[in-house]
Specification:
Largest sheet: 5 strands, parallel
Strand content: 15-25%
Strand order of the largest sheet: 3-2-1-4-5
Oligomer: single chain
CATH class: Alpha Beta
Number of strands: 5
Bound molecules: adenosine-5'-diphosphate
Shape: globular
Helix content: 40-55%
Amino acid sequence: MRRAIYPGSFDPVTNGHLDIIERGSKLFDEIIIAVLVNPEKRALFTVEERRQMLSEALTLVEGRGCRLRVDSFQGLLMRYAVEQQADAVVRGIRAISDYEYELQMALMNRRQEPGIETVFMLAAESYSYVSSRLVKEVFSLGGTIEGLVPATVEERMRLKLGKS
Ligand code: ADP
């Protein structure tokens, strides 16, 4: 039984995240998609909203027998990963800019918990420029984000940001 944690802000979940989850489901028996509760970082959506959007979006993912679960956590990722008896942490890499930060985090995490591996997955080419931050920025300026996030997320963004 191989269990992975896929941690992130997911503010909101994008099709790039979903692609990582779908491909990750070939590697693991269970993936816990864990929303980081970070009070310092200003988020557009509450943790509860982000969890709901993830749960809705996961119905679109072909899990191939892999159990997909949504959770949230606070504090040290490695402490949470141990509590959940995870074997690995999954992270997505889009560009060199992701790599530098992710490498540093992965090495620090390995030092905390040498038994838990970080597995990096390359972003799909078609989503490699997609980030939650950019999606929010473009949408709030009136641009189109169709095809970059699930329709349910687009709808919630419309409600939240009052765009028609
Ligand atoms: P964080 O705040 O931890 O960066 P995100 O929700 O932005 O959280 O991302 C969670 C993980 O998903 C990170 O490893 C990030 O690199 C990855 N990721 C984000 N967007 C994409 C994408 N479009 N394609 C692949 N991976 C992505």
